[in-house]
Give the backbone structure.
Amino acid sequence: MSQILASVFFLFLSSPILYIIYKFGLDAAGLFNPGLFWALKNSLIQGLISSALCILGGVLFSRGLQKISDSMRARLRFLALIPMLLPSLFSVLVAMNVLWIFPYGHWGVIFVYVLIYLGYATFFIYDCQQKQLNQLGFLAEVYGLNRWSFFRRVYFKLMQMDLFSLFIFIFTCTLASLTVPMMAGGGRGTNFEVYLYEKIYLDAQWSSAAVLLLFQLLAMLILSRFVGRAHFSEKQLAYIPSRYLSSKTSLYFFVAYLLVYFIPISIQMLRSIVEADLNQIFVTEILNGLRGSLQVYLGLIILFFLFVFKMSFYYFYGLRMSYFRVFQNMSAVVVGFASLIFWPKTGFAFSYFSVLFCASFIYFLGLYFTYFDPIFRKMQDSFLTAQIYHIPFRTVFKKIIWPQIKKPFSISLGLLALIVSMDFVFVFVSGATYTTLGTVFESYLSSYRMSMALVVAAVGIVFSLLVYLLMRFVYVDDKKSEL
Amino acid sequence: MRHFIGFSILIFAVLFVTYFNREDLNTTKEALSIKVYADSSFIGSWGPGPHLKELFEKQTNAKIVFIDMKESNSLLQKMAIDGKSAVGDVIISLDQFDIVRLSELIQWRPLVSKLDSDASQSYEVNPRSDVFLPYDWAPISINGQKNNRFIPKSLDDLLNEEMKGQLALLDPRTSSPGLQFLVWVMKTKSEPEAIEYLKKLNRQVHSYSPSWSVGYGLFKNNQADYVLSYATSPFYHLVEEKDDSYKSYEFSEGHPIQVEFAGVPDTCENCDLAIQFVQFLQSPEAQKIIMTRNYMLPVYKSAQETTVFDTLKIYKTYKNQKVTKDELQRWLNLWSEIRQNEPDSR
Amino acid sequence: MFQSYFESLKYVGHLLPVSFLRIFIGYFYLKQAFFDWKLHIIGNSVVSDILVEALNKAQMPYWYRLFLSEQLMPHWGIYSFILVGVQFIIGLSYIIGYVVRPTSALAFLFCFNYLLISSQGSEFFFRLLMACHLFMAWVGAGRCLGIDYYFYKRYRGVWW
């Protein structure tokens, strides 16, 4: 049964690529194009440097997290993960506000990537340190090992798989990114995804593009094998802090990074709101965007619920999702182009379904692996017991699964609200003529109308916050349902 | 009871969504609407689109639905794939190179201009005038501030050290002015010279923006001191911002001219209305709106009389601006190669 | 749910003729809803003219006349939207046989409203409709060839 489900699910997730290949065939000449090597070179430069800087920064900053209390650390963790949760367009806006003269090209792209992933890297490394190193820092002090020897002989030896896994994760994210190289690349920072976009939409060489899509899928498949390969020691001893793994200076730098991310943009946003010339046409554009975002959001709520239901069904019947991680960073260009070809007509219904199709393919799996897969893994015993007693799946979903996924479900819906209100990629790649807050935001940002872009961003954030609070109110009854 | 309330809310939600996305049906027989593809600078709140829509709808009692075209290339490719089921009544924001490269992808309706030949501007580039009508034009130039230290006077001056990292150019694959610049270089120099020139220029350029609005945005926000734009762009600052510090630089080689056209695809739904709209774009009232919102010169000469546009210097243009499809494709491929092979100075 | 839709024929098959009546009335409401949507909501609405005509009717109860003139007439656009929405709810509910009992109650009030504002010639028609709705609510018409059977099996209660 699980093999059948696996095959069906795999076919479904690969359907955009398969449809493009079916329509246009394959032309292997696309693999030998100098442009491809140039794009790969750019992707490697941007990906490798960004990942390396994030790892380096993470190793340094994580030492600062030892110096603060648990509650303060929890708050900083929340703040540090925001850049990754927000659509990358927002981080591009932050970067352009931080730097007066923005270095378009590789360095501009790398700067944005570091802004996005540095906080996540810091806390990831901190968590791994807590589990891997336990008391080793303290023991190294006791045995008189110097700092350099400790890092060389103990720290990096134990942490190498975690750091490598993190490196690959950030690298994969940069490889699949369309927004950042497009907005901050200045025409020079063309990575593989942008190259693919140009091949499809500008050059119209679809059969070459189909080969490149397969190439990308293969690369993602290989890379995904290395993500999540952290090894933790079986005995979890109580953690004892040590001088080698803590530093006040690191803490100050980490806080400075957070301040650099949040303070200038917040000030600019407030200033733009106060000074905004809210003329009729501008307000109409925002309202149109808000309406479009709301419509897409309502559709996504229904689809996401069905998706989670379906995934829990697959999990219940033994399908394990680790093989499908490769589709987590699905190329937005692939999905968008398949949608563009599949939904031929222009018109509200087709545009709407096209946008929903793209958004669900691009974001749902990521949300699933982040919030739901760990929970389902913990429920395996319950599923087995239910199967032994022939309890129907509907009952299992209602009584066992749903009470435990209500909170992550509300969080996911909050994130989806953020995506529809601030991201433009899923509308952009679908080619649909549809206005959301994200497309309005992008049009202002790309034409450097910063103050208007900031006002739209503020509207998007308020909208997402309201939706998140509403979803929490609806789905999360009391503290007992928190995991 | 919960089920009933939920069911009722669902029905009303669907009705709300349908209501707010309705196409208003006029019960009279003349109820018609046309779908017009245009680029974002035309249909944006700051462009001529909303004002033209208001005027045309008042005159004809019809409805215009503007659709953002994004790239003309991908739009026409998609329409070619869709065949008879393609949607769209009018396509505007096409320049002479779009017509040369892309117009054969689909069939077009014949159009007749209602402009008197005395009333219209004359310029060299007007390909396929049986199916495309021009509605505005302007010379292309490099713009900057009057107080810039270095004032370029020719294409070769763009290679000057003073301009390093300060020139915002546009991607010729996605931007009409960008392609105009590429053709300008190719036409005023021999091919080997042009290739060498572009390689050197590549190291000077600040960035290649995908569209004019992005590039000009960089310039306005002091990210670059010079930008590829239209000779009429300084008028925007003079009229809207009361700022006369912007200037377009005249080059000794002569300038290219960009002309924008509108056409009606053969798969149009309301073809008569679509043709009427295209002809409306050449009317005196529409020409005034296009001139004052798009900041481009009108094809109807009299529209610019007694306006600031009448004070525009007459720019020398270079000879023989016509190109073939193969030439354009070859030059674009050359440009792509040059862009890829540049040493990474950033 | 799909299975129980047809299974209902086995267990409550005696309600089959009522179900046919229910589906027919549902189809009638839905057709009218689409027509009213195009005419009153999308097109130039004439609802306000209907309301004005109704106010001229002599037999209208005083309290309803007050309600109509004070509350509904100033907001006749919203009123017409709600009425069309209710028609859609009744039509869909009756056709698929979902939440038929509460919908019948709503339909009863809906017809009562029309009874008060309609001309004398149409009064009999609306009284007949009201009787049908009452009948369908009484027997639980959604249970046969309807989704209500699925919930009726599990929850019982007055609403199914």
In short: Chain C has one domain: 16-142.
